[in-house]
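User: Show me a protein chain along with its predicted structure.
Assistant: Here is one chain, sequence first, then structure tokens.
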Amino acid sequence: MTSAYQDHLGRPLIAVTGMGVITSLGQGLDDNWKALTSGVSGIHKTTRFPTEGLSTRISGTVDFIDIPVENSVERSYAFARETTAEALAQSGLSGDFNGPLFLAAPPIEPEWSARFDLADRAGPSEKPGDAYDRFLAAMRQRADANFHEAALFGAISERLSDRFGTRGLPVTLSTACASGATAIQLGVEAIRQGRTDRALTVATDGSVSAEALIRFALLSALSTQNDPPERASKPFSKDRDGFVIAEGAATLVLESLEAAIARGARVYGILKGCGEKADHFHRTRSSPDGGPAIATIRAALEDAGMDEGDIGYINAHGTSTPENDKMEYHAMSAVFGDGLPKIPVSSNKSMIGHTLTAAGAVEAVFSLQTMLTGTLPPTINYQNPDPAIVLDVVPNVKRDKQVTAVLSNSFGFGGQNASLVMAAEPA
């Protein structure tokens, strides 16, 4: 027999006791939620680097935080630091965080400007070669400690661990666009397995650069509707043409419900279920039949001990790419059947763009906020509905509606699929 602190399988219920978020809409949960529910877009003309001659010249970069060293590692760390400080303050925890850290971070590789800078130091004795050979030679001959740390995949989590006093070896993961949800899943499992009473789950991405933009553009994944920027991301619309690359971060403090209540913490919601499935169809494309995505949603519902009819709102992956939106619609249709048109489904990416590694955690925070406030954020730019995608996308304007259970989807490049089921605090 389960207790009030256990789920249907006798596992500890997982409470969210703190949240922090940064996106192109602003810093902090309050500013983000106000803008998101007002239908404000954070997508703008890119000014961080020259875009002349590029087919995509817009992004959802975070440009309002002062970062002394302008590189993706420092940006990603700064975003994670700020959202973690906000989440811990909200949770009422101070001092060292007595629990593990699970960080979703973008893949680390030196930006080309840094590669050429180091290559120029190689000296005349180096043999001719391509830029990358010269870069490696420079690193061997003239070690740069700061650059070396910036190029280490685990550097961000190590710095966060030192700053906030987490326990054990911090875990850094990268599962493409599902990364944020995967980090949360690892925190949930650590508590369920009795390894800890609390976990810090963080997802961050500050990797928008000229190289990143060009790479995604070469995959024909980005929107080229540059003018006006705020109208470019239009999930589930007929004239959608690609996603808008963006930055952001989110942190969730997870605790067993029993431990949270014992210390008098406020509970902002319950992580009820997690689902994760691999898709081996293609390196970047999702399986057109939606099979892995279907299995992921069903796994999350089963893990939560809930039926399709229990979900009152879906925070869609909703990237605004022609193929992904169609696939996600088919996946949701297969799971929810005739009931899908009655379930509100909106995409935060219509306003904040695609925050890549951070997306799953950012959208988890917004999903919890939806239940806390009784407000459904809209899908903006929905002026030209796709007749092949019949959804209630909460078009253009927020809606007041109290829901007690939310599904949040994250379907990523390389076959990474993750879904989270969240519920309101139990009575």
